[in-house]
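Q: Could you fold this chain for me?
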Amino acid sequence: MATTPSKPALWNKVRKFFREVRLEMRKVSWPNRQELITYTIVVIVTVVIVAAFTGLVDVIFSGALNLLRRLGG
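A: Sure. Below is the predicted structure, expressed as structure tokens.
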């Protein structure tokens, strides 16, 4: 029969986890305001380009499939 971990041991692991998370977050190089604005614009432009490309491919394939359906039916 397997033994379950005791609550104090689990609590110590949780505390250790959050302590390590806090230490790692202090090492993060956070962007300044201008970098954040630039990165946000890059992401929005990229999303718009990918959405337009996906929409264009969808229209082309839909048209091709409709044409094939009319020719085959």
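A (continued): The radius of gyration is 27 Å.
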